[in-house]
Amino acid sequence: MDFIQLIMRRKRSEALNNISTGDIWGIGLQNEKKVVKN
Questions:
Q1: In angstroms, rounded to a whole number, what is the distance separating the alpha carbons of residues 33 and 22?
Q2: Cα separation of 27 and 18, whole Å?
Q3: Are 33 and 12 in contact (CB under 8 A)?
Q4: Residue 14 vs residue 8, higher pLDDT
Q5: Any residues with CB less than 8 A from the CB of 15 and at least 6 apart, and which?
C-alpha cells in the first residue's frame, strides 16, 4: 500500500504541475478513482 501511495502522490504532483493542460489532470483523477475501486 505504501508503495502505491508514493506513486499516486508523484502522479498527483505531476498533474498539479501540468494543470494548465487540463488533460493530464483529468487522467490523473481517473487513475486515482480506478485504483481506489480496486
A1: 17
A2: 11
A3: no
A4: 8
A5: 24, 25, 27, 28, 29
pLDDT at residue 20 tops 60 = no
Please state, rounded to an integer, the average pLDDT across all residues of the chain. 70
Per-residue cell: 13:
504532483
CB 32 within 8 A of CB 15: no
Dihedral sign (CA 14, 16, 21, 23): positive
Cell of 36: 481506489
Q: Output the nine-digit C-alpha cell for 18.
A: 501540468
Neighbour count for residue 12 (Cβ, 10 Å): 15
**Is the distance from CB of 32 to CB of 12 less than 8 angstroms?**
yes
pTM: 0.37
